[in-house]
Design goal:
Layout (H helix, E strand, L loop, with lengths): L1 H6 L6 H11 L3 E5 L6 H15 L7 E4 L3 H18 L5 E4 L5 H9 L4 E4 L1 H7 L5 H4 L5 E4 L9 H16 L4 E6 L5 H8 L8 E5 L7 E4 L17 H9 L3 E5 L3 H14 L6 E4 L5 H12 L5 E4 L12 E7 L5 H8 L11 E5 L3 H15 L13 H14 L4 H9 L9 H13 L13 E3 L5 E3 L2 H10 L8 E6 L4 E6 H4 L7 E4 L2 E9 L2 E6 L6 E2 L10 H12 L9 H13 L8 E8 L2 E7 L4 H17 L4 E6 L4 E5 L18 H8 L2 H12 L6 E2 L2 E2 L2 H18 L4 H14 L2 H14 E5 L8 H10 L7 H15 L4
Parallel strand pairs: 1-6, 1-7, 2-4, 2-5, 3-4, 5-6, 8-13, 9-11, 9-12, 10-11, 12-13, 16-20, 18-21, 22-28
Antiparallel strand pairs: 14-15, 16-17, 18-19, 19-20, 22-23, 23-25, 24-25, 26-27
Helix pairs in contact: 2-3, 6-8, 8-15, 10-11, 13-14, 14-20, 15-17, 15-18, 22-27, 24-25, 24-26, 28-29
Keywords: ATP-binding, DNA damage, DNA repair, DNA-binding, Helicase, Hydrolase, Isomerase, Ligase, Nucleotide-binding
Family: Belongs to the Lhr helicase family. Lhr-Core subfamily.
InterPro entries: ATP-dep_Helicase, DEAD/DEAH_box_helicase_dom, DEXH_lig_assoc, Helicase_ATP-bd, Helicase_C-like, Lhr-like, Lhr-like_DEAD/DEAH_assoc, Lhr_WH_dom
């Protein structure tokens, strides 16, 4: 292996030697190193060294990646050094796309190195031969560990590692990442029994600083918008002057829009592709191969390419709209050059004035090495249920030994005996309310005290339906007569209750009911209250939000901003107020015959969207006649027919105890959360042998079970899990609770005669939501300039 490095004119980097030392000492290891530092090769070097020195048959190393594409890319890159070293080491991938005959052969005659995903590993562990297949396993390498360790996929992987450690007690654990803010948190997650002293932390060399620029438009920074499409001609110019560019967008819809706009501006007819999760596998693979072959000058992509795919010819990354987090920005910047000693070149294209501040905050955070915090939480119980069922499919188990094994995984280290017993009872018969039905009797306890699968059909059912990623379904928006208007994201539609009104396709629609996968509506003359603004979106991280607050308050920073952004803030200070970093500024003012309240809380779009729902309900109860609300990452604007004289009454913490609970129970939100945990927990199957259930059939099944449990067993394990999901993931309730807890002590209420400069970006959104997609842009621009002129007047 040393000869191979020498032949290439390379020297192993310090962190690569440290990884070899850790392996020789039998230590687990976490490598934190910049993109381009050879992280993946560092993870494999001990394996290559061991297999060269002591050739062995059977599975030696398991490599786990968050993405199928990354596993395929690593295989391609790993085969080159193996071939050049002239050693006989088989490297294969195993994902959902691997042909069945190869999967069968891999279990009988596994390669020395197997590249897979957490879900495919979990499936492997459900087979009887997993007990022998993994018995000789020496190393597990987890790449891009930050991408899933803190979520449900991380829960599944932590449980899988605990099982592997029991099958192969001497197995080493290795994790790799470029963006880890809390190394000790990841060391604990990686370690058996959470003992961080067992995991050596290896840090890579710093590498060259990235070269990041904020693109300023040929004119002025826009008042509103979040796409950055105003800068398409300049983005096209960047593409023309670089070898290969990746253009990152925060949503799939935006990626399609930017792709279309670039083609319109592509006078040189340069080859440009698009890549996102809604595209077919064939389309994504085609784009990936074209990039690998150097056939594309640009690729428009979403988070589907955030991670590790190595295309050496990429020399520029462009971020359309604000990055929303410093860790995400650093990860995306790393896709350029992919070489440690050369600066990665990146361009940020902010969509509006607040996003300019956010882009500047992200740039400063990257320069100062500040990453977004990693939040570890207790493991999800639906994931635990799926894992225990997988283990049962492989072999009968003793409950006490299984609990001990599960507790060796950090997310479940504090799992109480009674909770585990409830999980086991749920898998065994569905729980108290469902135990009369044979279809839920999956496990039986034998006279030997061991739990085993009741009949083989349940094993086949588990393997067909296992997995953590549940596709986000859409709701069809329909009139009562069946006419279909289009689709909205279920995450938005499930929050609506009968009588709620929202804008869609330029119409004000009132909800009649939510049934299965349909949102039944009728056209209404009422002012629409809710908006379907781009559906689910990435929210600004608390780290970047805090930096934006400091920018606003620290006048010495303003000289760094473009003239129009600085003038905007100076006029805001003159006409209203600039909030201090810990202060909640609330403005009230009349505009176009309505009374408006704008709260600048910087808690992110998800929290603001939920708060808007709750506050309008409270306003209704207080007789304030709300008409609607709009939200972005920085502010929430509520408007109605009556003036709000006491905003503090709308922000009291008890809103989470009263309006929040009522809202969740009346809306379909909890049902949708239950659908996901029921699928993951194995209560409802997505597929039967030879056929797949439609989304409508799955929803119908889970809704029936949900209604039974709500009535007869309200404390059922999965109902509790659904509540946890609904609170934590769908509403960003942690940030919402913090906002409400501090509002009374930090609120600064300013009553104005007219709209303020800082309110302009969020107020323009009201006009945008009333306009059918693709029409009326000129009218919106005129409206934006009109509102801005009113806000920026001195008198």
């Amino acid at each position: 292996m040393t000869d191979w490095f020498t032949a290439r004119g390379w020297q192993p980097r310090r962190h690569q030697r440290d990884m070899l030392d850790a392996a020789r000492a039998g230590q687990h290891a976490l490598l934190v190193a910049a993109t381009g530092a050879g992280k993946t090769l560092s993870g494999f070097l001990p394996t290559l060294a061991e297999l060269i020195e002591r050739p062995a048959q059977g599975l030696h190393t398991l490599y786990i990646s968050p993405l199928k594409a990354l596993a395929v890319d690593v295989q391609r890159n790993l085969l080159t050094p193996i071939d050049e070293m002239g050693v006989s080491i088989r490297v294969e991938t195993r994902t959902g796309d691997t042909p069945h005959d190869r999967k069968v052969r891999q279990r009988v005659r596994p390669p020395e190195i197997l590249l897979t995903t957490p879900e495919s590993l979990s499936l492997l562990l459900s087979y009887e031969d997993s007990l022998t297949m993994f018995a000789g396993l020496k190393t597990v390498v987890i790449d891009e560990v930050h991408a899933f360790a803190t979520g449900k996929r991380g829960d599944l992987l932590a449980l899988a590692m605990a099982r592997l450690q029991r099958l192969a007690p001497d197995m080493r654990r290795v994790a790799l990442s470029a963006t880890v803010a809390d190394p000790d948190g990841y060391r604990a997650w990686l370690a058996p029994d959470g003992d961080i002293d067992q995991v050596r932390l290896v840090r890579g060399e710093k590498g060259a600083d990235p070269d990041i620029a904020i693109l300023l438009p040929e004119g002025r920074v826009p008042w509103a918008g979040h796409s950055g499409v105003y800068a398409i001609p300049q983005v096209m110019a960047e593409i023309e002057t670089h070898r290969t560019t990746i253009v990152f967008c925060n949503t799939r819809g935006l990626a399609e829009l930017v792709f279309q706009q670039l083609w319109k501006a592509n006078e040189m007819k340069l080859p440009i592709g698009v890549h996102h999760g809604s595209l077919s596998l064939e389309a994504r693979r085609k784009a990936e191969q074209a990039m690998a072959d150097g056939k594309l000058r640009a690729l428009v992509a979403t988070a589907s390419l955030d991670l590790g795919v190595d295309w050496g010819d990429v020399d520029c990354v462009i971020q359309m709209g604000a990055p929303k987090g410093s860790s995400r920005l650093l990860q995306r910047i790393g896709r350029a050059n992919h070489r440690l000693d050369e600066s990665s070149e990146a361009v940020l294209v902010p969509g509006n004035r607040f996003e300019y501040l956010e882009a500047r905050a992200a740039l400063d955070a990257v320069e100062q090495g500040e990453l977004d915090p990693d939040v570890f939480r207790p493991g999800a119980l639906d994931v635990l249920a799926q894992h225990v069922m997988a283990c049962a499919c492989a072999a009968p188990f003793d409950a006490a030994q299984m609990l001990q094994e599960v507790r060796a995984a950090l997310p479940y280290s504090a799992l109480e005996q009674d909770v585990f017993d409830r999980v086991l009872s749920f898998i065994a018969d569905g729980g108290y309310s469902l135990r009369a039905y044979d279809k839920f009797k999956r496990l039986t306890k034998g006279q030997d005290g061991l739990w085993r699968v009741t009949r083989p059909a349940f094993i086949a059912q588990h393997r067909l339906n296992a997995g953590i990623i549940v596709e986000a379904p859409m709701l069809d928006v329909r009139f009562k007569n069946g006419r279909r208007l289009g689709k909205v994201e279920e995450a938005f539609g499930s929050q609506l209750s009968p009588g709620d009104t929202f804008f869609f396709a330029g119409l004000s629609l009132e909800v009649d009911r939510v049934e299965l996968t349909d949102l039944i509506v009728h056209a209404s003359s009422k002012q629409a209250r809710y908006v379907s603004y781009m559906g689910a979106r990435l929210a600004i991280t608390s780290t970047l939000a805090d930096r934006v607050r400091v920018f606003l308050h620290d006048r010495s920073q303003w000289r760094r901003f473009p003239d129009d952004v600085r003038e905007w803030l100076e006029m805001q200070e003159l006409r209203s107020a600039i909030p201090a970093p810990k202060q909640l500024l609330v403005e009230t003012f009349p505009h176009e015959g309505k009374h408006h309240m704008v709260a600048y809380s910087f808690e992110g779009w998800n929290a603001h969207q939920s708060l808007g729902m709750l506050i309008t309900r409270r306003m209704e109860a207080m007789g304030l006649k709300p008409l609607g609300f709009v939200a972005n990452d920085y502010a929430l604007a509520v408007y109605g027919l009556e003036k709000i004289t006491d905003p503090a009454a709308l922000f009291s913490p008890d809103i989470l105890e009263h309006e929040f609970v009522e809202w969740v129970q009346q809306s379909a939100l909890l049902k949708r959360a239950f659908r996901e945990v029921a699928i993951i927990g194995g209560l409802v199957e997505r597929q039967h042998p030879g056929k797949k259930k439609s989304g409508r059939q799955v929803t119908f099944s889970t809704d029936l079970i949900y209604d039974v449990l709500r009535k007869y067993e309200p404390d059922h394990l999965l109902l509790k899990a659904a509540w946890a999901d609904a609170r934590a993931r769908m509403t960003d309730v942690g940030r919402l609770a913090h906002l409400l807890d501090t509002a009374a002590d930090t609120m600064l209420h300013v009553d104005l005669a007219r709209v303020s400069p800082m309110a302009v970006p969020v107020l323009i959104m009201i006009g945008r939501e009333k306009t059918p997609q693709g029409s009326g842009e000129d009218a919106l621009l005129i409206e934006a300039e009109s509102i801005a002129a009113e806000a920026m007047r001195l008198d």
